[in-house]
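Sequence in, structure out. Go.
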Amino acid sequence: MGGEPLLDIFREGATRLALISAAMHISVDFHMGESAGALEIQVTPAFCVGDRLLLVRAH
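Output:
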């Protein structure tokens, strides 16, 4: 502890934050107007960030 942050993210419209301990994985689901998606952060075995954004169209 005490070092610089590895990741600092602001995600408007977050609807769910889940920490999956078995996989050392954090998942943030979001929905904002016409877009929705998920931000996935994996801690081990390697640090990895994935950000999916989907456009949602109402018919």
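Check: The chain has no helices and four strands. The first strand starts at residue 14 and ends at 20.
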